[in-house]
Amino acid sequence: MPTDYISIKALVDDGQYEALAEYITNLDVDISKIDSISFTGNAIIDVILNDKMAKANKQDITINMSVGFNDAWGIQAYDIGIIISNLLDNAIKAMQDYDGVDKNITFSILSKSPVIIICCENPYSDENKNQTETQLWHGLGLKNIESIANRYNGTMRVEGKNGRFMNTVMLKAQF
């Protein structure tokens, strides 16, 4: 679950509406600083993608993207957003510990009816491979992704080979 959602929910649950208003105002300022590139035409997904691109750029990490989204898939943008956010956060975090020259993440969302495939790849070196795999498999983010994949009759696969770490999520469209 994205950090902002958890923070907002906690403030609402505690009845701290003044703090909530301030938090949202600050969040709005942060969002307005993000370059607004339309990747999918869906506002929720585009804000998440723009935020992750900005975070990666600040760390001299390149994200090569090929993404799409279609409401006709019957998959909620919120669920896709959780998947995107967690996959890219994990890849960006892994790149912080990566000592190689190739600081490129490849991210794609494509439809091959009746499934949607979301793939995130990043390089790894032998020094950070085991640490990255352990962090990813034990993280709450991947459990959330796996839960969403199961909800849409899909799967999640995490693998490392040929110096690349790849996380692939497949969701079945809900036509």
TrEMBL record:
Query: Known Gene3D superfamilies for this protein?
Result: Histidine kinase-like ATPase, C-terminal domain
Q: Which domain of life is it from?
A: Bacteria
In terms of InterPro entries, this protein maps to: HATPase_C_sf, NatK-like_C
Under Pfam families, the record lists: HATPase_c_5 (PF14501)
Q: In what residue span(s) does the Sensor histidine kinase NatK-like C-terminal domain sit?
A: 76-171
* A molecular-function term among this protein's GO annotations: identical protein binding
What protein name is recorded for this chain? Sensor histidine kinase NatK-like C-terminal domain-containing protein
